[in-house]
């Protein structure tokens, strides 16, 4: 029975509605002043985001409502999550951290209380999916609106900047042109050439003076270096005499000690040997110092040669400076001569300035003409806009202007306007002679023609859009069909090889065709593919058909399946394979299997056996080690089974205990 929920302002209105509303259906009344709703804690929200990876959001976020009815909205949807798929909804609903009602976009409802609502919707569209699409479209619209406003703002700023840039560019071009003309006039004069030559001469003179100063400093540095080397040589000679004298004193002392103390002969001999070694070292050091002296003398000779060379350079630089000075004096004399020429040029400049003023006046006249032309152009644009408004055919035929009947090249517009005025006067004169109904019919026919042209344009545009949509839908359907084929083909081969070890099966299109033309079932034993299914036995064909059906079921699993003696024509090992295959490949579904073979019983969670007891059909229930307890009771000539509870996984087998 359908339940209706009604939101009222307070509890008084709710009581009156219950007493006097003549409610004929079950109705839940929600008073806004009394309704209490639980708040979704931040811990639950954080856990939901972490477990779903961003695929779940509270249902309240998808709704738009007035704040005055916010308590009722939170009461109805406050503890509900909207998930992108059924797997995410199931995981959150039965998670200890979340443990709240979850609804997928496909419409599957998972409740922690143990109820599961879902299944096929037929051709009905999913409201939650449409709501999610609407929310996404609104967000996209707001974002694009913001971007459009920002772009329009930037466009306005750029237009103002472009106008300023154009203005300053024109002014810059005029200034550069004037500067170029002035530079050309000045550069062509003899005075400018003389000034340039004088500047070059002064530069050469400055460089020559700098080179002379640098050479003198270099000479001074080399002389000081030579004096330092001479001081070092004198100091070394003095030190060398002192060392030799010290060695000789030591030798004398050693000889005296040897003569005085024979008992210490060995020690004296060692001292003598040490003295001799020191003398030899002093002799080697003397040789090294002599070599250093020779090297220093060579450096002094090179420095003196370099000083002589630098002196020559200094003399040459002085001569060049003297020549440059004489040349500078000549240039200065020539420069004084050019002053008169400069005065003559200034006179010419005044004449040119006068011509420039005349040119400015001419430019002003041209500006006035340009302004007049612009006014004429603006009036012409207004006239064209008025003509387009009065004659709509101009807009549709404008693209043909310049070709065919609308080729205006070589046409005298003034004459055409005169002809137009004459024709308009003639039309005004004929208005009284022509029937008004004919004119109105002509206008109506023209309007109908324009309407038909507009409709044709709309129809052609809609046709192109429909063709694009059809093409996209065809592409999506082909992609979806190919995906279904690939997945079902994989599961088909896996299930068949499980049911019949050592074999393989696949779905492939016929030779020379595609999967859109149909698929054929191919079976192989080992590595040999069978040409036809007639080569298989009846049991093998049964297993093949069961594998294909279960592969299709696995693509879109249902909550519960009922199989009635699918193993009737199979051996015991095949029956065991079916039971094991159901347990491994369908952990999310419930199976009720009617069977008479022990191989199927070993894989069930719960067994229901029927037998006759004193002429009455009785059902006995047995729970296996992995099963859960469910309700069962006696029946008539048949039995029923249910495995697990709502939202749980289980398998049940109906068996005959008196077989």
Automatic annotation (TrEMBL):
The keyword Lipid metabolism does not apply. It comes from the Eukaryota. Residues 633-648 have a biased composition (Gly residues). The keyword Nucleotide-binding does not apply. It comes from Volvox reticuliferus. GO terms for cellular component: chromosome. SUPFAM superfamilies: P-loop containing nucleoside triphosphate hydrolases (SSF52540), Smc hinge domain (SSF75553), Tropomyosin (SSF57997). Residues 134-178, 219-376, 413-483 form a coiled coil. Residues 629-659 are annotated as: Disordered. Keywords: Coiled coil. Residues 5-93 form the SMC hinge domain. Residues 286-614 form the RecF/RecN/SMC N-terminal domain. One of its GO terms (biological process) is chromosome organization. This is SMC hinge domain-containing protein. It holds the Pfam family SMC_hinge. One of its GO terms (molecular function) is ATP binding. InterPro entries: P-loop_NTPase (IPR027417), RecF/RecN/SMC_N (IPR003395), SMC_hinge (IPR010935), SMC_hinge_sf (IPR036277).
